[in-house]
Amino acid sequence: MSADDQQRAGDRPILAVEDLAVHYGAGRRRQSVLDGVSLSVARGETVGIIGETGSGKSTFARTVLGLVRAGRGRILIDGEDVARHKPRQWQALRRRGVVQYVFQDPLRSLDPDLTIEDSLVEPLLVRGMRRPEAVERARAYLGRVRLDEDLLPRLPGELSGGQRQRVAVARALVAEPGLIILDEPVSALDSANRVGVLEILKGLRDSGVALLFISHDLGSVAGIADRIAVLYQGRFVEVGAARDVVNTPRHPYTRLLVGSAPTLRSAAAARARREELRALLRT
Amino acid sequence: MTTTQADRDLVAATDVGDSPTATPTPRPLPADEVVLAVRDVRIRDNVGDREIVHGVTFELRPGQAVGIVGESGSGKTLTCRAALGILPEHFTVSGGTIEIAGEDIAGLTPARWTALRGSTISAVFQDPGSYLNPSLRVGAQIAEVVRVKAGLRRRAARARAVELLAAVRLRDPELVYGQYPHELSGGMLQRVLIAAAIAAGPRVLIADEATTALDVTVQAEVLDLLADLRERTGLALVVVSHDLAVVAQVCDEVLVLRDGEVVEQGPTEQVLYQPRHAYTRMLIDEHEQYGLERFLDADADADADADADAGTGAEADADADGGRAGAPARDREFDGVR
Amino acid sequence: MGTVRRVLGLVSGRLAVAILFVVALLAILGPLVAPHDPLATSPRTLAGPSGSHWLGTDNLGRDVFSRLLEGSRTSVVGSVEVALVGLAVGVVPGLLSVYLGRVFEWVTLRVADTLLALPFLVFAVAVTSLLGNGITQAMLTVGVLLSPLFYRVTRAATLTVAQSQYVESALISGASVGWVVRRHVWGKVLPPVMVALAYTVGIGFVVVSSLTFLGIGVQPPAPTWGGLLASDLGYLSYQPWAPIAPAVLIIVTVWASNLLADAIRDVSGEAGRALLNNRRARAVRATATTEPISAGGATP
């Protein structure tokens, strides 16, 4: 790769989604889930997608990961349009480990019968790395999420929820991805563990990994996201710097989101205002 | 987390001593009767042979709201269950007393319990779907509660059920009455359950993680509904959550429970702005660092107009002047709100 | 393998394995240690138990004990055949039905339904009349007719795993379907298949006994448990206790197979580990009741 190429790769967003539409079913049962959404994530950037149940936020992530077929539009992962990829091409792309995914529920995202070590090295073994080398790397990343090496021979069932979620993050990291998509990564965790995982994620952001958070709660990601995209009924109704979205939300839904997020300040103050916004959104 | 019995006693004793229930809230109460009194309640696991809850104390008068914050396993749910008389089999209340509307629950017969539940004390829980029969229309399930509890005839019960569905602000109560649980969203189901819970006009409603599984906007709707019921009907609330902010939004008094111990207890303002225990501070810090507060504080002035219609909240009245030195930035925000 | 050790950790598992071991031993060594020729007739017909004939003699004066021992081989081999044929025919399509697309899935499901609808005893009778009266022909038929059990069990287990998050996350890491099956699916499918296998062995014993009771699958002089039961029933008025020995053998063997199936189910997977951990914890608690046990709560 020439210096020029490298320069270009550096500028290129790690993920660019253009006019993506996704629907489920066909014919009369056809149901549009995403309706022409565009979003790009720059290298090292942290973006939060906020939306409620049924807004299409999980579908967005699953489409980017190739688990759901894109109906229309382009999905550029590190410059490569993957929207029309065949299973083989997906497999090749995934083995490069550019995009990784962390599920919401650490109870179910690790195979209960595999040791932590086996789970951690899996992404490396599938791309043909030798086991000793893979284990070496797994050890390194386990340290990165502040877990002890003696967890390696244990089973997920022997770990606490917080530990398991950290293992899930480490598993995403061993592939040395450019982008990690996290689906409600902390909502299943207790306060202490939540802070722990968020701190680790913040460290990742600082080390240059792009993060794409998916959450229903603006409050849970506002503190670490650079930009926030609000997904409502299959469209991004607002995309902007986290600070601006929180402080000067323009769309009524965003205003309701900000007003609804439980904060230590809000008290019952915004009740009447929320009522107004709900009425507005209903029409 | 193993503590000796002496430690526990010591902590429990200091907790009771610290308990700011001694400082009366200035807000006038609709009635001065205590509808739920929990005094130094201890709960024991008979199989594991250890104490799980080490002394919880609070009193609830009509129109008041007490919040219990803690993580899973902190004993908050057990405390609620004890107050409802539905502790799991191998748990027992090993110390302290619980009084519901002046009646000590220790001596209650099963028949008396049945009479109390629903009509004096009631509850809603986390997963609304699992508390409804999936094969019956939701309206019929509420009407059943009304018929059993209030002794209404079929027709009157139906009318009352529709009224209740309207009271929990479901938009089209007649339509919802005829729907099945699977046709309703999580937020609507939780409202239906609240309707069922208040059907017999209870004095106390326990909401145990009732909004945890819901979307944030829906959670706010349900919390608003609870606050509304409380203001309109004088329903006393016990709000249990793992999120301090959720509890702070609705309650005047907060208990922070950790490993079965009350590590902090006091008026909401005091707990938020003068947290004494490191654990409470951690809960607050999490919000400060990662929550919306991070922006709200920095731009309090810009944000002030967004919250311009503040003042409906009676919560902000209590203990407003008491020592604010601890958190100047946060105070600025509060001044903005006023 | 861990499951075997865990099965042996249960009292019921040990009991089941012990009984089945004895039955297997009978099948292998029985004919060698039989005190008499099981086919040799003698004038002493329908004799009661005695020193030389432990279980007496039958209507042709043959030693019942020797016939039981000799018959155990047919019964055991037959039932194992049933189970293995069912396993071989059912498991692979069950696994593939999840991965090979809709057409394969639809076809195999219909075939499984069809096989389930056929009454296997009647079918076995029909097939033996076509292919010749032999225990192997009969058992092959029954095995094929029982294969939907393996098909369904495998398919159900595979479906659960295939939709799990850890399989999705393996796929996202670039794992192939082959890798997913080897790494994640196989380990989850094996225990329920083992349960089905043990259960089918039990059914196999009943089927072999039923068929031989009816005289299908064996030529008349050859002894089997079911055949013994049938001939004993003919002379009930002379020896009312005679059917007890073969009946008890059949019952105990089938019971042991089912017990083994239950034991495997109990100890396999997450739930099995939890069960055994609980037992261990209870045992620890029992030995140290005076010492308060730390809750061992989740540390962050």
TrEMBL record, chain A:
Residues 15-258 form the ABC transporter domain. Its EC number is 3.6.3.-. It comes from Frankia canadensis. One of its GO terms (molecular function) is ATP hydrolysis activity. This is Putative peptide import ATP-binding protein BAB2_0818. CDD domains: ABC_NikE_OppD_transporters (cd03257). It comes from the Bacteria. GO terms for biological process: peptide transport; transmembrane transport. InterPro entries: AAA+_ATPase, ABC_transp_ATP-bind, ABC_transporter-like_ATP-bd, ABC_transporter-like_CS, Oligopep_ABC_C, P-loop_NTPase. Keywords: ATP-binding, Hydrolase, Nucleotide-binding, Transport. Pfam families: ABC_tran (PF00005), oligo_HPY (PF08352). It is an enzyme of class 3 (hydrolase). SUPFAM superfamilies: P-loop containing nucleoside triphosphate hydrolases. Belongs to the ABC transporter superfamily. Gene3D superfamilies: P-loop containing nucleotide triphosphate hydrolases.
Automatic annotation (TrEMBL), chain B:
Residues 36-284 form the ABC transporter domain. Its main location: membrane. CDD domains: ABC_NikE_OppD_transporters. It holds the Pfam family ABC_tran. Its EC number is 3.6.3.-. Residues 1-10, 329-338 have a biased composition (Basic and acidic residues). Residues 1-29, 303-338 are annotated as: Disordered. GO terms for molecular function: ATP binding; ATP hydrolysis activity. It is a peripheral membrane protein. One of its GO terms (cellular component) is plasma membrane. Keywords: ATP-binding, Cell inner membrane, Cell membrane, Hydrolase, Membrane, Nucleotide-binding, Translocase, Transport. Gene3D superfamilies: P-loop containing nucleotide triphosphate hydrolases. Coiled coil: none annotated. It is found in: Cell membrane. It comes from the Bacteria. Belongs to the ABC transporter superfamily. This is Putative ATP-binding component of an ABC transporter protein (Partial). It comes from Frankia canadensis. The lineage of its organism: Bacteria, Bacillati, Actinomycetota, Actinomycetes, Frankiales.
TrEMBL record, chain C:
It holds the Pfam family BPD_transp_1. It is a multi-pass membrane protein. It is found in: Cell membrane. The keyword Membrane applies. GO terms for cellular component: plasma membrane. Gene3D superfamilies: MetI-like. Coiled coil: none annotated. Keywords: Cell membrane, Membrane, Transmembrane, Transmembrane helix, Transport. Residues 76-261 form the ABC transmembrane type-1 domain. The chain crosses the membrane at residues 15-34, 76-100, 120-146, 193-218, 238-261. GO terms for biological process: transmembrane transport. Its main location: membrane. It comes from the Bacteria. Belongs to the binding-protein-dependent transport system permease family. This is Putative ABC-transport protein, inner membrane component. It comes from Frankia canadensis.
